Amino acid sequence: MKYEQKQSFDKPSSTVIKMFGDRAYFERKYAELGFRNVEVLEHEKKGDQFTIRIRYTATADVPLPDFAKKFVPAEMNIVQRDSWDLKKKTGRLEVELRGIPLKVGAAMRLADEGKGSANTLAWEVVCSVPLLGGKLEKLLVSDIQAKADADLAASRKILADY
Predict the structure, then answer these.
(1) Considering the domain 2-159 in this protein, what is its CATH number?
(2) How many Å apart are CA 76 and CA 63, to the nearest integer?
(3) What is the domain partition of the chain in residue ranges?
(4) What is the dihedral of CA 103, 35, 121, 87, to 10 degrees?
(5) The dihedral of CA 50, 78, 35, 8: what is its sign?
(6) What InterPro entries would the database entry show (predicted)?
(7) DSSP characters for 6-20?
(8) Among 53, 32, 56, 36, which residue's Cα sits nearest to residue 155?
(9) What is the model's pTM?
(10) 72 secondary structure, DSSP code
(11) CA 69 to CA 49: how far, in whole Å?
């Protein structure tokens, strides 16, 4: 399942990309979102390339139907990897949901827009479970969308410090 999401900011892309290329931003954002057991597993900044890999625990923000409880626990252990080309302002986000048969990723593109900027995420969610895969994909997309407003609010709040 594919879908697109846009996050708008009131600062230019040159400022937002500084935030997206800062380890402290990710640590603050995950704390702000109330995720637990947050641990930076990898962090590297070489020239215009930035990568961070973080493990955390989060709960589903959507009610789980009975069929999904077999595949999706109420508490999810997640490893997320964000990679950015800071010069081109393009990136990739990959989410590994431990023990859940879903592959989640998004291509990211940050650009100036109006008086500010916007990060466009082109999401792709794929489930390998026969027959129920499409339903699980829709459920995860609903959870991502439910978390999107809080994620954007946290990012906007942190952006004020850049």
Answers:
(1) 3.30.530.20
(2) 14
(3) 2-159
(4) -110
(5) positive
(6) DUF2505
(7) EEEESS-HHHHHHHH
(8) 32
(9) 0.86
(10) S
(11) 38
